[in-house]
Amino acid sequence: MTRPRGDDSGTTEGRPVPTAQSPRAVDAARVTVERGRDGALARLGGRWTADQAPAVEAAAAEILGSAGTAGRVLIDLSGLERLDTLGAWVLERTRAGIGAAAGYAGASPEHLILLREVAYREPEPAAGRRRARLLDPLAALGAGVARLGREGLTGLAFLGEVVAACLRVLARPRSFRGAALVNQMEQIALNGTPIIMLIAFLVGCIVTQQGIIQLQRFGAQSYVVNMIGILTLRELGVLLTSIMVAGRSGSAFTAEIGSMRMREEVDALRVMGLDPIEILIVPRILALMAALPLLAFLADLAALAGGALTSLLYGGMSVDAFVSRLQGAISFRHAAIGLIKAPFMALIIGVIASIEGFAVEGSAESLGRHVTASVVKSIFMVIVLDGLFAVFFAAIDF
To answer: How many angstroms separate the CA atoms of 241 and 244, rounded?
Structure first.
């Protein structure tokens, strides 16, 4: 028995003929614009998604074209089947192209969130050229003084936290990380000794050589021993050492702590109930305060050795004569002055390096900026502190 054939208009071999649009055509992004007295209403339909990009662009162009003849355009999103980032961005671009006369209606909460996230923002206009005013230098100076005051208060507050952490360590000696202190001493003192002594030796040679050349005019080249001895022990040795430590160890402290900040290791310490100041800062600052006097003493010896060598080569003064003259020119108080300064300079370097390390944000550019600021501020404060000590010791005639 054969199956009857229907007419050709509805079936083919017993199967329905698809007379409606394909699913892809039904889902395509579309818009129906209804114009009225108050403006135009654009009803959206279909899928405003990335796979319908050509249809989305065409529908958006139709909405934008309707704005030319209508005063206000209201975009109705209630008929949308789906909206993704591309569709939302095209809608926002279209709305921005129409201007303040465009608005949304019938949007679901999800659509509103997506439209808010991709909101079209006009580029900010370039700032006009500002004319220089007479009071601008004074305003910049005032801003710099205010910033300096804020940084000073921050440093005092951080110093207080360090002192409090040290007191907690004294109250609980078992919590002190002795291994970290030894490791920092090795990094600062042992590994830093060769370069610091080399630089001190070269500077001693240069200062002595220039002193001999100038004093020869007056026939007083033997007084170069007094000059190099007092200058090295009181100022030159500790100042050179502090600057080298600030550039070498201070920058390392800032980079280490800043890297831990970038990797959120400091926050992890706080989550575990540990104090980052006690764990990271106290061993470093104590190591600095212990190592800097030792390095300053070695720098003094290296500078004096350089002075003795240069006196032998340029001034014809034997090493025995140099040492004999040096013993009569200097005393213990000259060496004590330099060694007294060293721990205070170490404290300044450690505090500034730690503050800059904790100020690092999540970018490599921030890390580099704060490392540079750490070195510059440390060297500046070391020189300022050395000047204050010089005035103080001169006032007490020490």
So the answer is: 5
Query: How far does CA 269 lie from the centroid of its chain?
Result: 21
Q: Rounded to whole angstroms, how far apart are CA atoms 85 and 181? A: 54
Per the CB < 8 A criterion, the answer to whether 334 and 230 are in contact is yes
12 phi, psi to nearest 5 deg: -135, 115
Give the Cα separation of 64 and 98 in Å (integer).
6
Residue pair 241/196 in contact (Cβ under 8 Å)? The answer is yes
pLDDT of amino acid 128: 57
Nearest to 300 by CA among 240, 237, 208: 237
Rg (CA), the chain: 39
Q: Is the pLDDT of residue 12 over 70?
A: no
Tell me the C-alpha distance between 318 and 250, whole Å. 40
pLDDT at 364: 86
Distance between CA 86 and CA 92 in Å, rounded?
10
Side chain identity at 397, as an amino acid letter? D
Cβ atoms of residues 78 and 105 within 8 Å: yes
Instruction: Using alpha carbons only, give the angle 218, 224, 228 rounded to the nearest 5 degrees.
Output: 150
The enclosing H or E element of 95 equals: helix 85-98
Nearest alpha carbon to residue 57 among 82, 30, 97, 26: 30
Closest CA to 317 of 222, 208, 201: 222
Mean pLDDT of the chain: 84
Question: Over the stretch 313-353, which tens digit does the pLDDT of each residue have?
Answer: 888 888 899 999 999 888 888 999 999 999 999 999 999 99
